[in-house]
Specification:
single chain; about 260 residues; mainly beta; Jelly Rolls; 2 domains; seven-stranded antiparallel β-sheet; 1 helix
């Protein structure tokens, strides 16, 4: 998907000009350029203004009328000039909308919930049920890493777990999320805390909202859980219906970009 941002008129007499500056698209964001009329155009992708002696384009060649090309995210600034100093050209510039980031994770692990607030449990055994291609699983850390090449502004979803308690006392589960760029130093996400009451010697399957805001490229997000009482686990589901075994995960977590 893309939105037309601008139609640009360039002349050979002016040398190289920055399409990013003229169109308002920041460097490193994906865009499409279409040659809609006039002479051939030289194209260079560079972090600095190219020298006038540059004759070939870093994507392969110059472009002529009716040709188009895409600049992927992270490529740098786009510079163009008419191949002839006497020529003019018309270019249409489009901002390419990135595909929305989304994932669904599932775990079938039995996770014993810590009773220590300073050593809260992570969700182990996570695997992908769905990935839009913007995420990398960090199973050993109980989380997922943004590898989209961009900041993901906002996502919403659910985290659902099958909670099993094997003692007689009622206790409270404390749930929160956190983030890290290196997998070592973690920052608690503001307003991420939520609680759940767990009855003694009982099991339940419940869902909590999940939100993520301003997830930086290469940043990891994850949930942590601890309990106000002992003998609580996140456990997979299994029961028999019509002679067949029906199973379910201990945890399912999903997020979709807004």
């Amino acid at each position: 998907m893309s939105d037309t941002l601008n139609r640009l008129h360039i002349t050979g007499a002016g040398g190289f000009v920055s399409i990013n500056t003229l169109s308002g698209i920041l460097p490193n964001l994906p865009m499409r350029v279409m040659h809609t009329g006039g002479g051939r155009v030289d194209v260079v992708v560079s972090s600095v203004e190219p020298p006038e002696s540059t004759e070939r384009n870093s994507l392969g060649d110059t472009i002529s009328e009716s040709e188009e090309f895409d600049i992927p995210s992270g490529s740098g600034e786009l510079w163009v000039r008419c191949s002839s100093p006497l020529a003019t050209a018309e270019l249409s510039v489009f901002q390419i909308k990135p595909e929305k980031a989304a994932f669904m994770l599932v775990s079938e692990d039995i996770v014993s919930i810590s009773t220590d607030p300073d050593n809260a449990s992570i969700i182990t055994g996570l695997t992908f049920e769905y990935d839009s291609g913007h995420w990398q699983l960090e199973a050993a850390l109980g989380g997922i890493r943004n590898i989209s090449g961009r900041t993901i502004a906002a996502e919403k979803g659910l985290i659902s777990s099958h909670v099993v308690s094997t003692n007689s006392s009622t206790k409270i589960l404390f749930i929160y999320s956190e983030r890290s760029t290196d997998g070592v130093n973690w920052t608690k996400n503001p307003l991420s805390g939520r609680t759940e009451s767990v009855s003694g010697s009982a099991e339940s399957y419940g869902s909590k909202s999940s939100e993520a805001f301003v997830v930086l490229d290469q940043e990891i997000i994850r949930f942590r859980i601890f309990s106000g009482g002992a003998n609580v686990t996140l456990s997979p589901v299994s029961f028999v219906v019509d002679g067949e075994i029906v199973t379910g995960p201990s945890t399912r977590w999903r997020l979709s970009e807004l």
